[in-house]
Amino acid sequence: MIDFLRGQVAYVETEYIVLDVQGVGYRVFCPNPYVFPAKGQDAITVYIHHHVREDAQLLFGFPTREEQRLFRKLIEVSGIGPRVALGILSGGNPDGVIAAIHNENIAFLTKLPGIGKKTAQRMILDLKDKLEGLGGATLFNPISADVSELDDVNVTPGWPEAREALKALGYTDAELDRVWAKLKDQLKPDEEVDSLMKKALKLLYAG
């Protein structure tokens, strides 16, 4: 089974990257493809989950081993397949997801793509004691805010959550303010967090 690939990015699409590894192009589905460097830059390492089913073999890729491990924990939960797990990681930064599980924050978890109340409860039950060693400082800071605090009535509701996830990836407030100024007039009122993330990352990636 493939655990990681090292090569150059050949293409970046909205759902995946194509990684050129010694002349072979691997299609790798990612939570946020635009976090990876542009085509033709130095070789990178992508941590892989190699998913095998009867009709296909799929590669899911992550910039860190921690995200890879969290993805693998998520797909152990009944009702969460690889596509839903990918949506979880695109809709909320890993530390935030881990903290929400540890603090039994169902309100936060049900804001993630594809997660209803019952699935959120299963995530907490199945994973709360299995995430030791994953996550950073956020893990030790309970998420006490109500979901309504994530929604600013003056902006698209999902943007505050998307912004926090982008900050966790290392982007500055100034960069995110510039991106929001470009994005805000192009969005639907009910734009999903994962869609916001992808559109913002595309702008950040383009400079």
Automatic annotation (TrEMBL):
Residues 72-91, 107-126 form the Helix-hairpin-helix DNA-binding motif class domain. It is found in: Cytoplasm. Coiled coil: none annotated. The keyword Cytoplasm applies. Residues 148-207 are annotated as: Domain III. It holds the Pfam family RuvA_C. GO terms for molecular function: ATP binding; four-way junction DNA binding; four-way junction helicase activity; hydrolase activity. Keywords: Cytoplasm, DNA damage, DNA recombination, DNA repair, DNA-binding, Hydrolase. InterPro entries: DNA_helicase_Holl-junc_RuvA_I (IPR013849), Hlx-hairpin-Hlx_DNA-bd_motif (IPR003583), NA-bd_OB-fold (IPR012340), RuvA (IPR000085), RuvA_2-like (IPR010994), RuvA_C (IPR011114), RuvA_C_sf (IPR036267). One of its GO terms (cellular component) is cytoplasm. GO terms for biological process: DNA recombination; DNA repair. Homotetramer. Forms an RuvA(8)-RuvB(12)-Holliday junction (HJ) complex. HJ DNA is sandwiched between 2 RuvA tetramers; dsDNA enters through RuvA and exits via RuvB. An RuvB hexamer assembles on each DNA strand where it exits the tetramer. Each RuvB hexamer is contacted by two RuvA subunits (via domain III) on 2 adjacent RuvB subunits; this complex drives branch migration. In the full resolvosome a probable DNA-RuvA(4)-RuvB(12)-RuvC(2) complex forms which resolves the HJ. Belongs to the RuvA family. The RuvA-RuvB-RuvC complex processes Holliday junction (HJ) DNA during genetic recombination and DNA repair, while the RuvA-RuvB complex plays an important role in the rescue of blocked DNA replication forks via replication fork reversal (RFR). RuvA specifically binds to HJ cruciform DNA, conferring on it an open structure. The RuvB hexamer acts as an ATP-dependent pump, pulling dsDNA into and through the RuvAB complex. HJ branch migration allows RuvC to scan DNA until it finds its consensus sequence, where it cleaves and resolves the cruciform DNA. Has three domains with a flexible linker between the domains II and III and assumes an 'L' shape. Domain III is highly mobile and contacts RuvB. This is Holliday junction branch migration complex subunit RuvA.
